[in-house]
Amino acid sequence: MRKPFVAGNWKMNTDSHTGVSLAEGVACGSMDIAGRSVDVAVIPPFVYLQAVVRALNRSHIAVGAQDIYYEQKGAFTGEVSASMLKDVGCIYVLCGHSERRHVIGESDELVNKKINAAICSGVLPIFCVGEKLEEREASLTKEVVGRQVRSGLAGLDVEKASALTVAYEPVWAIGTGRTATTEQAQEVHAMIRKLLGEMYDAQLAQEIRILYGGSVKPDNAADLMRQEDIDGLLVGGASLNADDFVAIIKAAS
Ligand code: PEP
């Protein structure tokens, strides 16, 4: 039985004050369920990580980062390593988010190095994959997502891969208000799980959590969560409002 997992990606939003009150609002609203019937994480910008970790100290909500660099330390101006994230209390890190792939230009190879570096430092990657609109329209979804999964996990043995959460986020559904239908999402989730079974083994495929992301809101969360292979939700815009995010957490729990 896979425990539901809901993560809120704040992207480049909030400030030192609103970030802390958002975290406190989420902790307060989900007090009875977070960590029990549902795992919850918030993913603030780097500069607010420590303040949010402190604010969530007494809660069961984990904190994640939006990115890492794969080297541990040295002359990499502007970058942040996995061991630094661990040092400030991060449990999770997003790897390969669509905005990093398509706005910043990250390759599958770079995502693979980041996943590997995170796992080696004990930070749990949330590995994001998803096709662009033109790829879906050209019936290339399975091919694109399959390639992202294979390349992102290249060289990772079963033990390392078991530290992963996968997030399927169709690029055309992120921040657009356009959600994949439950059937579209379930189909890709099932395909990813099958592929993980082929790459690793049936046990890993059954245990790994696959989140859906892309315009998740309080009113579509429960339907998505009813799908057999959807184990949780990666939420962007709606995670910036404590009431909406708590409603999504409750729908998932
Ligand atoms: C995301 O940032 O991963 C995301 C899914 O954003 P939104 O919920 O706003 O589409």
Properties at a glance:
single chain; alpha/beta; 253 residues; 8-stranded parallel beta barrel; 15% strand; binds phosphoenolpyruvate
- Can you tell me the overall shape? globular
Small molecules bound in the structure, each named once? phosphoenolpyruvate
Please bin the fraction of helical residues: 40-55%
- Radius of gyration (CA) equals 17 Å
Topology record:
Blueprint: E1 5-9, H1 16-29, E2 39-43, H2 49-55, E3 61-65, H3 82-87, E4 92-95, H4 98-104, H5 108-120, E5 124-129, H6 133-137, H7 141-152, H8 158-161, E6 165-168, H9 182-199, H10 202-207, E7 209-213, H11 218-225, E8 232-235, H12 242-252
Parallel strand pairs: 1-2, 1-8, 2-3, 3-4, 4-5, 5-6, 6-7, 7-8
Helix pairs in contact: 1-12, 7-9, 11-12
This protein binds phosphoenolpyruvate.
Written account of the structure:
By secondary structure, the chain is of the alpha/beta class. 44% of the residues lie in helices and 15% in strands. The chain contains 12 helices and 8 strands. The chain has helices at 16-29, 49-55, 82-87, 98-104, 108-120, 133-137, 141-152, 158-161, 182-199, 202-207, 218-225, 242-252; strands at residues 5-9, 39-43, 61-65, 92-95, 124-129, 165-168, 209-213, 232-235. The protein has an 8-stranded parallel β-barrel with strand order 1-2-3-4-5-6-7-8, surrounded by 6 helices. Helix 1 (16-29) runs parallel beside helix 12 (242-252), helix 7 (141-152) packs across helix 9 (182-199) and helix 11 runs parallel beside helix 12 (242-252). The radius of gyration is 17 Å and the shape is globular. The mean pLDDT is 97. It binds phosphoenolpyruvate. Residues 9, 11, 169, 174-175, 213-216, 234-238 line the site of phosphoenolpyruvate.
